[in-house]
Amino acid sequence: MKMQDSSPVKVAAVNRRNFIKRSSAGTLAATLAGAAFTSSKAQAAEAAGEKKLLDPVGIGVIGCGAWGRDVLRTLAELPSANVLGIAENYEPFLKRAKDSAPKAQGYSDYKELLANKDIKSVVIATPTHQHKQVVLDSLAAGKHVYCEAPLANNEEDVRAIAKAASAAVGSFFQPGLQNRSDPQRHFLLAFLRSGAAGTIFRARSQWQKKDSWRRRSPNPDREKEANWRLDDSISLGLAGEIGIQHFDAVSWFLKEDPIAVSGFGATHLWNDGRTVPDSVQVVLEYPNKVFLNCDITLANSFDGDHELYYGTDSAVMVRKNKAWMFREADAPLLGWEVYARKDAFFGELGIALVANATKLVAQGEKPAEEAPYANTPLFYGLEAFLHNSATYTAGVADFTENYDASDKQAMKEYLDSLQKSLMPSASLADGVKASMVAIKASEAIMKNQRVALPKSLFQV
Amino acid sequence: MRLLTRFILVAAALALSLVGSAHAEAIIYKASPAGSTVKIDGTSTIHNWTVEGKIIGGQFEADPGFPMNGTPDAGKASTKAKASIPIRSLKSGKTKMDEVMQEHMKAKDHPRIDFETTEMSVKVAPASAKDAIVFDAKGKLTISGVTKETAMIVTCDRSDATKLKFKGETTLKMTDFGIQPPAPSLALGLIKTGDEVKITIEWVTAQARTEAAAK
């Protein structure tokens, strides 16, 4: 497999041999769970330190629909969040959003929010087809930008966003691929890349929920606007709004870009005039005949959402912030799994891969069931954005005070050198790739065909 | 007629003095981002550590009579330098360590390390105009709001016609500047940091046209 990773995320170099060596030595002291437990503490300490280190930058949220209000509720949990503005052109949403950000200035026009010089960063949570203009205006106003995924609903807009974000020296850009910031995912990444599950040859993911996705409003125009997700002329449907997180997670773990996508879709339950299917299946093809089968439906909620990675030695299941390994009978003994907590799943025994889930840790202060990373991926994504925005703001100020501020190339090189000081997050390139895959997956579903994904599609 | 002649003479004298003062302007070299680095190396009870930064602001100034492009003699040099480093630009690659460092250096109150020369002399006269000039630079170093007289041997690389690259290093004790060596309690237990640190700088400056242009 060709190893290629555009992510700025640093992954500990772990190979199978030293992983196993570490795992079997010293009753878990530096094993899978133990190492993760230590890193958990360190991360918590680092996060605490970060709050003292950098002055929080003022942040604004553009788009206060259901997701935008989730963003605001999450920001309210982050001490480093200084929410100064919220923008929404639908008055009832703006009022509701105020509950989570009572001190923020409300704007009916996002351009007025962008004119506020105290707001350095913005989270863009508008409907996907409106992202482009808001992103371009935000970058032109010199803001750091967190743009929800997918970046846009068509290739042209994705490229326009990528071009503007690349050219906006001094602005930090983060696509809303939150898994990339989740510490539990980083722990799993090291595990999967170590080869401890053998060679990963297949992945499967699902997201199932009985939910119409329909918004009700007494105003027909407003209802049409609110139900943009159900209109295939402006929405990528389930592949774009849900599947993109799976596509990105699997591509990241496999360290590969998909080469083709096939799609199938149908509306089984919500025959209400929508033009996007309520149930879809997507097959992503990776090099070496590795496939991801992704099932998403709004017609049944059984078994929720999860991912499965099938290796020649073990399968790994990821559910929210927990994961388990299911070993094959002939899989080589790793050593540490003897001490790990085990959970039964229909006659299969899952070895907990959750950091902290070992007997050793269970004998200590914390119960093994308690996951060390209990927050949502959105929490970690926004936490990283706040930290990284503040790092960029400080970097730009330091550069401008000491060097010729008009030398943009030199400023870019300086900011690039700060990568090690950033918290893990999705890069612009990650956002472009995931968005392009989602666009093509949606196309494959609507046309019920296989669509090739040439490398040129992913070029920023 | 006499009045006119006197006016012309005065005007000519004024013009000459202006020309003269233009020639007397110092040659200014402003800090340039490409290639500037500062490195601080220290020790601790568990491992050695390093923080690095890429921002060194300030300027180097040479009197017009000083042969910056020639072969100055050993002895006192009519040059001076002023440099500053934002403390928050110093990075270890570990957020926690950066935070500990900044806290101990009282970065909120004293956000920069400043150095300003009080006397520079050519320590080793270069053999040719292309050779580096080795300066003995004495000056005031201010860290965490504490100023100390310090001296440093600085090599000035002139191989690039448009830039000067100064290289130097010095060793100092944190306690001399009122900084208590950090002893953070981390996941691995209590860590004690050594008092002595080595500072290495590579400072690139590019010539500005005149003192006025540099402002």
Explain what this protein looks like in three dimensions.
The complex is a heterodimer of chains A (460) and B (215). Chain A has helices at residues 16-24, 32-53, 66-76, 91-97, 110-114, 131-140, 155-167, 183-193, 220-226, 237-254, 359-362, 377-402, 408-416, 428-447, and strands at 58-62, 82-87, 105-107, 119-124, 144-148, 173-176, 200-208, 260-266, 279-286, 290-297, 305-311, 314-319, 322-327, 342-345, 348-352, 450-452. Chain A is of the alpha/beta class. By secondary structure, chain B is an alpha+beta fold. Chain B has one domain: Lipocalin (Beta Barrel). Chain B is 17% helix and 45% strand. Chain B is built from three helices and 13 strands; from the N terminus they run αββββββαβββββββα. Chain B has helices at 2-23, 95-104, 211-214, and strands at 27-31, 37-42, 49-53, 57-62, 75-77, 79-86, 112-124, 133-143, 146-157, 163-173, 185-186, 189-190, 196-208. The longest helix of chain B has 22 residues, at 2-23. Chain B starts with a helix and ends with a helix. Residues 9-22 of chain B have low confidence and may be disordered. The interface between A and B is medium-sized, with 28 and 26 residues.
| First-residue to last-residue Cα separation of chain B | 43 Å
- What portion of residues of chain B belong to β-strands? over 45%
CATH architecture annotation of the domain at 54-180 and 376-429 in chain A: 3-Layer(aba) Sandwich
Rounded radius of gyration of chain A (Å) = 22 Å
N-to-C span of chain A? 23 Å
**Count of β-strands of chain A:** 16
Largest sheet of chain A: 10 strands, mixed
Rounded average pLDDT of chain B: 87
Determine the CATH topology of chain B. Lipocalin
Helix content of chain B: 10-25%
Question: Which class of secondary structure composition applies to the elements of chain A?
Answer: alpha/beta
Name the CATH superfamily classification of the domain at 54-180 and 376-429 in chain A. Answer: NAD(P)-binding Rossmann-like Domain
| Biggest sheet: strand arrangement of chain B | 1-4-6-7-8-9-10-13
Strand order of the largest sheet of chain A: 14-15-13-12-11-7-10-9-8-16
Class inferred from helices and paired strands of chain B: alpha+beta
What is the global morphology of chain B?
elongated
- From the spread of the alpha carbons, the general shape of chain A counts as globular
Low-confidence stretches of chain A: 1-51
